[in-house]
Amino acid sequence: MDPADEVLDVVDRDDRVVGRARRGEVYRRGLLHRCVFVLARDAQGRVFVHRRTASKLVFPSYYDMFVGGVLGAGEEYADAALREAGEELGVSGLPRPRPLFKFLYEGPGGGWWSYVHEVRCTLPVAPQASEVDWHTWLPQEELDRRVAGGDWAWVPDGLEAYRRLRAFREGGGGGPSGGGHVPGGGTQPAPGS
Asked: Are strands 33-41 and 67-70 parallel, antiparallel or unpaired?
C-alpha cells in the first residue's frame, strides 16, 4: 500500500477524533492527526539515531533521535508505539514502550498530537530499509553535542519532542503528573494522572 493512502484519524486541538482521511490528504490539507515518538536506548544507555529515507512523505533524509510515526485510524497510542518501534528497529519481542507525555506539535510540516515514549532495546536491530537510510547508537553526551552543533539536519518535530523530553526529565516540562506542555493550552496529563 502506498503510505499516502493509509487512513488516519483526524483530531481536534483537544485530541478528539473528528473524522478520517487518507494520509496524503491529511498532509496536503494540514489536518491535525496523531503520532508517536519512541526514544530507544540500548543496554549501555545509548540512543538510537537514524537518517530517514529520501522517500519519506515528511522530512525526507533528515536525522531523528526517535522512531515512530502516525497512528492508523482507530489505533491507540500505546499500540502504535510498540508497532512503530518494532518496525523501524526491525525487532520482534520488544517490551512495550513506556509512555511519558504528549503535546501538540505545530511547526514545519504541519500539526499533530505527539505522544513521547521510551523503550530499552537489548535485541540486535535490523532497521526497516524503507524507513531508515542510516543508523547508529549515540551516547547521550554525543547526541546532545550533535543537536547543539547544528551540523545535522534534524526533523523539527523530533527536535521539539527532544527539547520537551529534556525539560520533562529536569522537572520543568510537565511537572509531577507527567503531562507535557501544550502550546496555547496548558498541559496534557499522562495516562493514569
From this structure: antiparallel
Provide the grid cell at 41.
536506548
For the segment 96-152, what is each residue's pLDDT rounded down to a tens digit?
A: 999 999 999 999 989 999 999 999 999 999 998 988 999 999 999 999 999 999 889
* Cα-based angle 17, 23, 27 (whole degrees, multiple of 5): 95
d(CA 97, CA 80): 10
Alpha-carbon distances, residue 12 vs 15, 19, 113 (angstroms): 5, 9, 9
Q: Is 0.70 surpassed by the pTM of this model? A: yes
CA separation for the pair 29, 162 (Å, rounded): 26
Sequence-distant (≥ 6) Cβ neighbours of residue 145 within 8 angstroms: none
